[in-house]
From TrEMBL:
Name this polypeptide is given: O-fucosyltransferase family protein
InterPro entries: FucosylTrfase_pln, GDP-Fuc_O-FucTrfase
Chain ranges passing through the membrane: 29-48
Topology class, membrane: Single-pass type II membrane protein
Keyword NAD part of the UniProt annotation: no
Gene Ontology terms: biological process: fucose metabolic process
Amino acid sequence: MEVRSENNIQVRCDKIPCQLIPRTRLQVWFFRVCSSILLWTCLIQLLAVCELWHPRLLTGLTNRIPWTSRPPLRLQHSLHSPPPLPPPRNYRSNGFLKVSCNGGLNQMRAAICDMVIVARLLNLTLVVPELDKTSFWADPSDFGDIFDVSHFIDSLRDEVRIIKRLPKKFSRKYGFQAFRMSPVSWSNEKYYLEQILPLFSKHKVVHFNRTDTRLANNGIQLDLQKLRCRVNFQGLKFTPEIETLGYKLVRILQDKGPFVALHLRYEMDMLAFSGCTHGCTVEEAEELKRLRYAYPWWREKEIMSEERRQQGLCPLTPEEATLVLQALGFDKDTQIYIASGEIFGSERRLASLRAAFPHIVKKETILDPAELPQFQNHSSQMAALDFMVSVASNTFIPTYYGNMAKVVEGHRRYLGFKRSILPDRKKLVELLDLHQNGTLPWNDFALAVRQVHEKRMGQPFRRRIIPDKPKEEDYFYANPEECLCEGTKCEDLVGPSNSSTLH
C-alpha cells in the first residue's frame, strides 16, 4: 500500500509503519512546549537576578502593568528571590535551653526576646519556646500558631542556633529528664554566666519553667540590648493568617480616617487579679472575689478596692475612660477601636462610652463573622490582632499600664515615637472624684487632665534606673532607648534622665 504525501513522496506503509507520522507531530509539539517552558524559566530567573542586583530597575515597568494583567499574588512572590539568609554563627554549643513561657501574649513576647539573649550570651542552642496553656486564658496555641517559626529561626541564625525540638536522645521517651528551674528575676549577665552556665556542663539540657522578667532592664551590654530589639521588632513575626487579618482590620479603619486604639483593660481577669470593683454591683464584686480565690498563683486574696483605686493601681472603668477622652479633646466623631477581650459587665458598662463616642468598633463588629472563628477561643491570637491595630493606630491609649500597654508603647517608639497617651491613673482618680462630686467644674477638670498628660504622649525620654530596685525601674520593652538612636544623636533625642513614674 502506498500513501502519497503533499511533496509527492511515496511512503510504503508495509515497510514504514503509518504510526510514525502522528508520533513525529507529537514530538514537535512536545519540543515546542518544552522550549517555551525553558524560555519562560530563563526570563523569570533573569528578572529575579535583575531585581536582586538593581531593585529599582523594574519598578517603573511593573508599576505600569495594570492589576488585571498581573499574575496572582502568590505567583508574584515566587517571581522574587527571597532575601538571602544571614550566614549562621559558628560556635560550639554549651547545651540546650528549653523554655516554657508564662502569662499572656505580650508577657511571653518579651520573655522570648530575653531567652534569645540568654542563649546568645551563654552560647546555647535554643529550642523553640513553649507557650503558656494553663493560665487564666487557657489558650491551647503553640508558638507556630502565633509566630512564623521558620522566620524566627532563619532571621536570627547569625546570632543563635534555634531548633524546633530537642534531639531524640534528650526526650522523655528515652528516659531523659531535663533540669527544671526558674531563673532569678531581673538578673544580669554575671548571674547567667556564673550561676546558670555551669548547669549546662552537668545537665546538658536546662528547662526554664518561668521566663517573665528574668533579664534585667539595665546594665546589659549594648550589643545584647540591640539584639533584644532585633528579636522583638524583626524576629517575632506573626503567622501569615494573623498578619493578613490584622492588616485588613487596619485598612478598614484607616479608610474611614484617623482612629484611636483604646486598650480598655476592664476585663474579668484584670479585675479579679487587681481586686478592683469600682462601679461593679455587689454580685459582680463577689464573682470577682471567687475567681481570685480559685487561682492559687494570685496570691493576694483580701483586697481593699477603693484603697487600691486611690493609689492608682486599678484600670480606669469605661465610664472614667469616657470622661478622660472627652477632657483630652476627643469629640463624638472620633473613631475608637476597642482593643480588648470581653468587657466585664458587657454592654451595660459600655453604654456611656458609646453615648459619647458613637463610632466605637471592635474586631468582632468590623470583620465578617466567618473570618474570626479560627481565632476565637485562642486569646493570644485575638490579642495579636489587637496588637497589630494598636501599633498602627494614630493614637494609642491604655487604661492600665500592663504588659500589652508597655510592649505596644515601645513598638510605637521604635516606629518614630508615635502618639501614645499614658494615663496617670493616680492623679486622674483624684480629678475624677472632684469633678463627679461637683467640686471641680468641667472646664477646670479638662484643663487639669490635659496638663497632667502633656509629657505622657510617648515623647523621647531616658529610661529610669533605680539601683537595687529593678521592679520599680522603667521597663526595657516600653522604652528600648538603645535601639531608638545612634551615637551622639541619642543625647539630643532622649535628653537627660527622666524621673517621671508611670502607673
